[in-house]
Design a protein that fits this description.
The chain is an alpha+beta fold. Among the domains are: 1-109, Ubiquitin-like (UB roll); 113-231 and 367-430, FAD/NAD(P)-binding domain; 449-580, no CATH class; 600-662, Orthogonal Bundle (Arc Repressor Mutant, subunit A). The chain is built from 16 helices and 38 strands. Strand 31 and strand 32 form a beta hairpin. Helix 2 (126-137) runs parallel beside helix 4 (175-185), helix 6 runs parallel beside helix 7 and helix 9 (394-411) packs antiparallel against helix 10 (421-430). The radius of gyration is 26 Å and the shape is globular. The relative contact order is 0.12.
Length: 698
Amino acid sequence: MERIKEHPVLQPDERKTLSFTFDGKPCSALEGEAISSALYANGIKIFSRHIKDSSPQGIFCANGQCAQCSVVADGLTVKSCVTPVREGMRVATLRGAAELPRTACVQEFGRVEELDFDALIIGGGPSGLAAAAELGKLNVSTLIIDDKASFGGKLVLQTHKFFGSVEDCYAGTRGVDIAGKLEDQLKDYPSVKIWPNAACLAVFSDKKVGVLRGDKYCLIRPKAVVSATGAREKSLAFPGNTLPGVYGAGAFQTLVNRDLVRPARRLFIVGGGNVGLIAAYHALQAGIQVVGLIEAQEQCGGYKVHEDKIKRLGVPVYTRHTVVRADGAQGVETVTIAAVDDKFKMLPGTEKRFRADTLLIAVGLSPVDEFHAQAREAGMESFVCGDAQEIAEASAAMFSGKITAHKVLKSLGVMAAPVPGFWFDRLEVLKSRPGITKAPAKKDHQRPVYPVLHCRQEIPCNPCVTVCPKKSIKLSGDSIMNTPQFSGDCIGCFKCLLICPGLAVTIVDYRRDPANPSVALPFEIGRGLVKKGDRVRLTGWEGADLGEAEVLDVKDFKAENTLIVIVKATPATADLAVSLKLFEAEAGEKSAADLARADDDTIICRCERVSLGEIRAAIRGGMRDLNQLKAVTRAGMGACGSKTCASLLLNIFRSEGVAPGEVTAFSRRPLFVEAPLGAFSNVKCRTEVEEKASWSGF
């Protein structure tokens, strides 16, 4: 079993154990657990065999957006990441339509109920919850739905403390806790109805919205629709990109942080944005070795404090590198990377191969905005917020939801005043890209105890300023984008250290020993790893080795789920020490230069297994219409509805010298969320297997 029993932040909950089978093999699951997570917990990573070439298939998004994780459950093909395990469920590898039992529909048509609401919010993530709260304050009849069992969106996957403003978005609080706070506040507003496990299927031209709540379908007639549907992860084209073990960072966080399943032993990450950097840190918290992280740009695009956190612990970050290929028989066994030039072309002779069983793809997100488009086409009052509008941090998404709610209020005639202009200014700050990185500040005082602020990059963040009881930490300007500075008195209370999202505050203390000061360091990787009396290696703000030090004490602040490791330092290292180095970087093996060649066998369309070579041949033959491309090659025709491959296809056109304006886009599917056709009439269906089982009882 691959379950996480101990975690520095998360606590395993006690749930009933269920029994099920996979290909006849007895397995166990926790009540309410998704099939995909249960299979991973049982050490199973191959969910299907593609009908085209019998290639092994695993998970990719774990969010219901693709169909990579499909299995056969009690005779029906289902997405394992959104289907809970039931007691006695018979799960099997999906091997093609020929092996599926026929479905016998029982003619039990149910009435389709129609319900009226002033506002319908599709998506219960940070922006949707924030919007619902604003509408609830003015007693607006609101329905908020989400296709997951719990609300919070990606917040429920985030164990780290959030950046931003304490006042506007709970900065300094962990994402998992913010999710609970946002949902709990809705209890104060009786006009807001909350539907978990409710998927929006479509917005129709008669201004009705189809919602499947559990197994019951209904129609909602809202006066306004808010799409707070978030984003889906982008894929990446390289040989081996569909092997089991290659999947998105969101899928990884779902397994590790939501379901406490350890899906990897040796992990490699592609992408140096916040998503990839945070996933690396989450992996370390789960006891997973992070072999390395690569970023094609000259610098990582995420917050520097996220990058520095993992570098301090010993994780190597390779900028100006790309993934060449993933190799393995039935799953990922090795990952090969190479350096790239300033035009992102691989440099022959720089290839390195690393042993890894999992490769995370964190190369960006695409807005899920299809419902917003459908509502606009239907002539409805349609609004969009959060990542569905623009990809940004969750802190910005919360404020975006608040602003959008006030736009809804105005459209409904509840409020006549426009949204305050300074709200938009604040939103722009919260979604700001990182600014300049400043040089370390020089010490200009001789206080016996003081904080050292290792936060050098301009990012929106102010928790340390708000929490200091002596008001001795201030921003260097009026904006929360400015870096903090210490000026005043310090009592060594640790509050600034404990609240800092970047683990970028340490406390230096000369009071007991002027010759050998102590340094208090934040530590969140695991309890029991460091003990009093241990010899540890100190690292600086960017991971520089500062030598060994003795651990004087370890304090466990359980309310904050943070340890403080107090070490003996020297006057030369006291102000420089930021963290402990836990891991040694691996050099990797030199690989043959020919591995850097582009491989026409690279899979672009996962659902239909259409290769890069097939796409190139069609483009070079003069094809400029994605719909024609789909008809000829089947690219984009699969179960995911081109949600995974569409951006890759456009990139191939660009690489072939075809401007985006020359390409005709895919025609939008009227239904892009998979559901049984019988659901639209509340028809009850049973498989042929279930039908025979019911007759056997007579």
